[in-house]
Amino acid sequence: MPPPPTDYTQPPPTLVLDEFITKALTSTPPELHPFFEAFNNLYTRKLWHQMSLKLSDFFDDPRSKPFRVDVFHHFVRDFESKLNQQRLVEMATKVSKELDNPQAQLGFLTSLLSRIDTEKSKEAHVLLLANIAHAKLLYGDLEGTKTDMDTAAKALDQLEGVENAVNAAYYRVAADYYKAKADYAPYYKHSLLYLACVDVATDITADQRLLLAHDLGISAFLGDTIYNFGELLMHPILDALDNTQHDWIKKLLFTFNEGNIGKFEALAPLFPQEPLLEENYPFLRQKICLMALIESVFKRNSNDRTMSFQTIAEETRLPLDEVEHLVMKALSLKLIRGSLDQVDQKAHITWVQPRVLSRGQIGELGSRLGSWIERLSSVEQRIAPAVSVSA
C-alpha cells in the first residue's frame, strides 16, 4: 500500500490504477484480495453504483481496519464525486475513526465537507455535519459542536423522509453534547430519539447499551422537567441493566414511576454508588413526593379529585405544613391543574398530566374502565322500565 497521508486537506496523488491494485494485493491479507480485484473491474467499467456498494462492504469488514485510510485517500478520492454521497460520508466516518486523534479526525471530515454538494446531497451534508460536530465534541470544542448541531437541525427540518442513519447521527451527537453539559432533560429527550432510529440489538454494542441505559436512568432522575418515565420503562434498552451492578437503577426507575415512597426509601442506601444521586438527594426526595402525588391523583376517579392536605400528607409521607408547597410546585410544573383552598386545607385538582403508562398502570386503568361500564349498565337497567312505559 502507498505510505499513509499526513495532510488530508491536500489533493491526493494522481491514481495509477494498476500500480495501486498491485501494491494493495502485495500488502494486504489474501482474504481482502477479492475486494481489490472487484475494485479494479468496477473502476475500469465505470460502474459507480456497484463501486459504492462494494466499497461499503470493504469498509464494513473488520479486516480492512489497517488499510481504510490509505484506500480512501489514494483510491476513493479519485472518483468520490461519482459515488452515492451519503454512502461516501458513511465510509469517510468509518475511516476517520482509524485516525489517531480527534484533531486528525476533524481535519479529515472537515476537508470532505467542502467537497460535498450541499444542494444535491442534503442528507449527506447533514450526516457529515453531525459527524464533524461529534469530532469537535471529542476535541473539547463545545461551542463549535453546538454551531454544527444547530446548522444540521435547521437542514433536517427542511427535509422529508430522512433516513434513520441521518437522524441517528444528529440525535447521537446532540445527546452526547447535552451529556457533556450535564443538561439532563435534553440529554434524555435526544437519547430516546436516537434509540428510535437504531436497532438496539445490532447497531449498539453491549457495553454501549449498558452505558446508555445507565445514563438514561440518571438523567431521568435528575431532569427537572421529567416526571413521566413510561417511555423509558417500556424500552428494551433497560434490559442492559439486568444482572449488572446497576440493576438497582432499573428498580428505582419503576419506583419513581409508581410514586412508591416506601420502595424509594428502601433503595436510598444504594445512592452512594452513584455520587450524582447522593449529591441531589433533597431534589430526588421532592421528586418522588411529586410522583406520589401524581399517582394518587391518577388513581382517583375524575369526580373524586378534591383531596385534603391530610390525605396528601399521608400519600406523600410529608409533614402537613409542607403539603401546600408541594401542591404549588406540582401546579407550577404543570403536572396538575386545579386550585388550593388554604382555609379548608384542600386541593381541588381538575387535571393530571397525560402519561405514558406502564403495563401495570394500563391494567389498573382497564379495571377502572370495567367498573365504569358496570355502573353504566346498572344505570341503564334502572331507567329502562321507565323509558319503556313512557314510550
From TrEMBL:
GO terms for molecular function: structural molecule activity. SMART domains: PINT (SM00088). PROSITE patterns: PCI. GO terms for cellular component: cytosol; nucleus; proteasome regulatory particle, lid subcomplex. Residues 186-354 form the PCI domain. One of its GO terms (biological process) is ubiquitin-dependent protein catabolic process. Pfam families: PCI, PSD13_N. Keywords: Proteasome. Belongs to the proteasome subunit S11 family. PANTHER family: 26S PROTEASOME NON-ATPASE REGULATORY SUBUNIT 13. This is PCI domain-containing protein.
